[in-house]
Amino acid sequence: MVKVAVVEGDGIGREVVPVARDILAAVRPDIEFFDVEVGYGRWERTGSACDEETIAALRSADAILFGAITTPPDPGYRSVLMQIRRALDLYANVRPIRGEGVDVVIVRENTEGLYSGIEWTEPDRACTVRVVSRRGSERIARYACTLAKSRRHLTVGNKANVLKSDCLFVEACTAEAARAGVPCTFCYIDALCLDLLMHPDRYDVIVTTNIFGDILSDAAAYLVGGLGLLPSANIGEGHALFEPVHGSAPDIADKNVANPIAAIRSGAMLLSHLGDPASAAAVEEAVDRVLRAGIRTPDLGGAAGTREFGAAVLREVGRGKA
Ligand code: NAD
Ligand code: IPM
Ligand code: MN
After folding, report:
1. Ligand 1 centroid vs 125 CA: distance in angstroms?
2. In terms of CATH, what superfamily is 97-225?
3. N or C: where does the chain have the smaller number of CB atoms within 10 Å of the terminal CB?
4. Among 248, 254, 256, which is best to mutate for testing ligand 1, by the most ligand atoms less than 8 A from CB?
5. What are the domain boundaries of the chain?
6. Number of Cβ within a 10 Å radius of residue 294
7. What is the DSSP string of 285-322?
8. Quick one: fold of 1-90+236-322?
């Protein structure tokens, strides 16, 4: 039995995760799912968005399927997702971007950088400390190089022209790439944002620090049809969490219009992680067949609802098995 923790979260997380979960259940009847509630909704109801017990429940799972949570810009509210990533030490945020003429993987450092959590507010200024450690840089560089070794090459997105902290990051990536024998180039992150959109064929694996990877991946969604399509994996030594790149999208929540593909593809990444690439491929192919049949949610110009799209993928998964 494989244990998968399911966090629907807030907003469209509550719509897209059940779709992804049903598809996982169809391809892998041996998965035992258990629900874990975290997020803004829980905070409003109980005053706590996540606690030690929640983290322990997440730790007990073989993998976590995560939706999205609302993070209000309230000084009294700490991002739960950041707490979870840190508590489970999910240091590699892997974001594949695949589509017509595009096959790029962004590997985002996921535990430090500007998300160090070291911040304070004074009467006339507020400070956030950007921490780039040697250990943190080396391990994400190693992860990205291992991936690039099985693919083509590595690009290091950085701002070492201005930030001393990125000099250390670049140094670590240079050393790891040389050790792994991976062709490696460097690009300032601002220039990279544009060049990736103009010439996606020039890129393969991109490794970068936390917030740069956050911004770059949302921008890269433009290449393949938007945020509704991009999955991600948050990987650590002992734990792994799979979630869409998008957020809780309150503007479209509860309307049955959210695109569940990002969540479904995150489920496929979860299956690969569990050592079942065949089921992962079956899910990916089912999504592609449904898209080719012209069934699409409104963000892709179609009229299918979240649930209807999910039902179509479920049918295709069933057909693939028969
Ligand atoms: P968002 O990703 O939720 O939405 C950005 C835009 O993309 C919106 O117009 C939305 O309607 C659209 N969109 C997103 N996912 C879509 C989908 N599956 N189908 C169709 N359209 C989709 O980002 P935001 O609006 O900046 O943030 C909303 C909330 O989500 C905030 O509280 C933010 O902190 C949170 N957030 C959470 C996560 C997470 O939990 N992983 C990630 C990003 C943002
Ligand atoms: C993401 C999100 C998160 C981040 C927020 C919700 C903490 O934007 O996963 O991309 O900034 O990492
Ligand atoms: Mn983001």
Report:
1. 29
2. Isopropylmalate Dehydrogenase (3.40.718.10)
3. C
4. 248
5. 1-90+236-322, 97-225
6. 9
7. HHHHHHHHTT---GGGT----HHHHHHHHHHHHHHHH-
8. Isopropylmalate Dehydrogenase (3.40.718)
